[in-house]
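Data availability (excerpt). The following record was deposited with the supplementary files.
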Amino acid sequence: MHTIIENIGLQFGPGAAWLLTSTMIFLRYAIPASLVFWLVYKWKRKEWFAWKIQQRFPKASQIRQELRYSLLTSLLFGGMALGVFFLRKMGYGQLYFDVSEHGWGYWFLSLALLIAAHDTYFYWMHRLMHHPKLYRRFHLVHHQSTNPTPYTSFSFHPLESVLEFAIIPLLTLLMPVHAAAFFLFTLWSIVFNVLGHTGYEISPSGFTRHPFFKWLNTPTHHNMHHHQARFNYSLYFNFWDRVMHTNHPDYDAFFETVVERAGKKQGPQQPVPLQKRASKVAAVVGLLLLCNVSASGQMTLDDIKSGNYGTPTYRTQQVDSLMRSGLGLRDDQIPKVHDINLRYAQRTETEVVKPDLSDWTRYRRLMKIQQEKDKELEAVLTATQFEKYATKRDELLWKGVKDFFF
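Predicted structure:
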């Protein structure tokens, strides 16, 4: 293949070589993604709906956006892949084509090293892109697919595409890589990505708790990340999420819920439609309460839907009461916690509830406010108290996301 690309480049110029490379990359992604999409979203749409992680189907507009960005990603990947060949021509990089240069043992070792290095690079690059100052510029496009499909696997902002591919030329500069090993590595990456974004769980019960298989990620793992973005950053393996404690606390339980539902082999179902809300504000404030009323079940979803979510002062009183009883606050902690709860309830009213914003912008602002509030609470609460608070907060936030959007 490299000879074909080089010959086309010599005969027709680098532009033709770039288009050919980009086309091959796009087809290598689009063919498996389309096959999986046709299988689970078309042919077995009703029969396999019980295996659908989110019990609804994405909108056609989301899929069209994914295809547009995937085409752009392929063009960028094609240009950068061509750059790897040009680096080799200029004497840089260690891409080689004769297995005998390093032997079959190194060939297989290099493939394993490529996968392990990419998994490590992706985790830390992914976490970096979730920094508030970088998220909108780099990663927001990918997360606009809150209910991912196989086509989401290549749907990146151009800046994220560059970061996604950057590890490839770096690795070819640092270590000898055979072209076939490089090809298999990219094929592995695409297939794993497509399966991870299917929106369907294919793993059996107990997979996430098995001594060996728990180290492999599941479609549920990454699906949760698409609508609970503060967790589950890893790609192929669950190593870094476990080491850095960034797995969603409900990952195992939610995985078993999905598998159990599928295991019952329910008959064909109709996708659960999104319920109509009294207003967009009511839906967002529902998430607000589930973030801020950290130990509560007292403010019900019915109250939220009907608009009876109260003022910042009322919400603060509710949170104060629940935190005092649920966390066993000391007398010296009570006024500090009250001040934090009131200030952030007022901020959410001003920055989230009242402005005329899209749901996605409201959600991002809400999560930013919640993270800042958590930092202040962590300084006031004991380690045990904060752990209880965080556990209940995440439990209710996840429940709220499912109830409102799924």
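Summary of structural features: The first strand starts at residue 95 and ends at 96.
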